[in-house]
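Page 42, continued from yesterday. The earlier attempt failed because a stray header line got pasted into the input along with the sequence. Redoing it now with the clean sequence only.
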Amino acid sequence: MRHDYPALGATELAGLVGAGLIAPSAPVEAALARLRQTDGALRAFTDCWPAWAVHRAGVVGRALARGAQLPLAGVPIAVKAGSGVTAPTTRRLLAAGAIVIGTTAVPVAAAHPWQTWGHTAHGPRVNPWRPDRVPGGSPAGSAVAVASGVVPLATAGDGAGSTRIPAAWCGVVGLKPTSGRFPGPDRAGLTVPGPIVRRAADAAAW
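This time it went through. Structure tokens are written below.
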């Protein structure tokens, strides 16, 4: 699982878990191992929740044993810092069986209003393809987490390219849904939640 994991999409992983070919804990363990392997250099995450992720994997496993149909069963995901697990779209992902392993970095607007890379106490995010290049706009950490193979799906938000730009710069897929299609914090409707994923099919699954 750990060897193949970085190349697998969210729907592929969910298919393996749903078919009983792997336990829900297997992708979570692979994601956490990949995070430990890469994040010291790339710094995609501001926080990691391994104990909570393992607990959620157990919850998903028990739900599947009872016959629950979970379209994202066992899929490790990351959420953009600031939105957390209480955002409406994240709650839907959790209800579908996805498992949050941590939060991803965003720019520090107060210090650097036009900063185009996510920031943590350990420094800025690094583009996984070119360490001398930035990974793009506000969901920078989400794009890096997906591009580096830590998770197949991460949450983001897009007003004027914030999801699409880091996805493009990191060589993955970012989707801005139609304004008003999903609930979000922007009452004007310009900034809408969306996914950053490895595969276009995973954007549809989101």
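Notes: Strands lie at 45-48, 76-80, 99-104, 119-120, 123-124, 153-158, 173-174, 192-197.
Reminder to self: strip header lines before submitting.
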